[in-house]
Amino acid sequence: MTEPADFLARLRADGQDQGRDQGRGESRSQDRGQDRGQGQDRGRVPRWAQGQDQGQVPRWAQSQDQDPRGAQNQEPAQLPHRAQGPDQGQVLQGAQSQDQGQVLHWAQSQSQDQDQSQVPQGAQSQEQDQDRGAAFHADQRRRRARRLSVGAVAALALAGVTAWLVTAPEERSDGKPGAAALDEQAWPDDWPATTGLPLRGSPARTWATEKEELPLPAATAVGAIPKEKVSDGLRRAREFLVAANLDPEVLQGAWPADAMELLDPLQPARAELTEHLREPGLPDADPTELFTRFDPARLTPALGGIRVRGRMTYEAGGAPGQITIHADYTFVYAVRRVAPRPEPGPAPGTEEVARVVVRRQLVLLYAASESPGVTAGKLVPAGYRRQLGNHDCGTVDGFVHPYFSREAAAAARPWPVVDPYDDSKDIPDGRPSCTVPSRT
Q: Measuring CA to CA, how many Å separate 42 from each of 37, 52, 121, 125, 308?
């Protein structure tokens, strides 16, 4: 049987044990409640990850939002203590992935916002319009500057020419004051031509050159002479004119072999001309009556300084099988001095040329067929007249001697003054054949 004291001791022990068990039960209940709360937290995304206000976000998350790079580089050891534990891996993984997505999105949107804020669309178009407007105005200023500069240069040039023409004496022939600055076309007419414009002021500048073929009249039959023979006679007459007055070697003083070959060897005219060429002299042995040659030791034709104009007609000759050809041609030559030195021009740095105008009127007989004392296909010079403008008739050596301006001013020229380009009248018969040209 149990004693009351023992019973009371057991009751006290049982009460303490029960209290301890009850306390353990309440503790277990609290632990289970905490476990259930943690399980609920596992199933939800934390409020700080749902994009709530900054005041509800933990301070470490706030620093991540302020500096996305810091959120990306945040170490797990810096997470708050409540985020650690069994669910730490899930929380970190979700927070990191979500934060990284937010960081990337934020960086992209921030870059776009900065670009848009720096250059708005309206500002871009406005800036482009301003650039185009600035380029347009700059181009307009350049164009105005060019127009003003060109106009100023033209005005100065015109003023200079006008002043020079007003102040230059008409009798001046040396041309030194201001002449070098002017175009030769603006020089006075009495100034001599130069190698730059050897035919300045001459009407012959529009005539045919020595390289162009002289035109011929249309050939027709003449009596019993067929058209073909007439055409051949005209061509040979032209060949003689060219060989005697335009052949480059003949102009340089060579023997006119081609011209002499066209003449009939059975006629005395050929022998007489050969004698004149070999021993020229006054009064009748002057080769310049038919040939134009210059002394090669003193003169040479200037480049581009030869012109020719004329006409040719024909009719039946005085003998059977013969036609008479009339040729009237004017030749213009601009020559330059080669020795002892070039002739100075009217302006510094220029070289003067002397021009001579030679007009020839020839009567040539052409034999279409053989006859006693006549060679078929050859020419016979039946008559010839010449008029030489600006030539020294006092010198007879087989060459043409034109005057340069200084020589002409000092020479005594007792010959008639004639317009050398006027071919409306025949050359007067008789001597002298030299003239003082009214213009060259």
A: 9, 18, 48, 54, 120
Cα separation, 439 vs 424, whole angstroms: 16
Please provide the DSSP assignment of 342-390 as one string: PPB-SSTT-BB-EEEEEEEEEEEEEESS-BTTB-TT-EEEEEEEEEEET
- Structure token digits, residue 290: 């038919």
SS3 category, 408: helix
Over residues 15-29, the pLDDT tens digits come to 454 444 444 444 444
**Which contiguous run of DSSP H or E holds residue 335?**
strand 322-337
Count of helix runs (H) and strand runs (E) in the chain: 11, 6
DSSP secondary structure, 81-129, as one string:
GGG-STTHHHHHHHHHHHHHHHHHHHHHHHHHHHHHHHS-HHHHHHHHH
pLDDT of residue 364: 98
The number of angstroms, rounded, from the C-alpha of 344 to the middle of its chain's C-alpha atoms is 33
Compute the distance between CA of residue 30 and CA of residue 25 in angstroms, rounded to an integer. 8
Cβ proximity of 357 and 427 under 8 Å: no
**Tell me: the pLDDT tens digits for 380-393?**
999 999 999 999 98
Distance (Å, whole) CA 350 – CA 195: 7
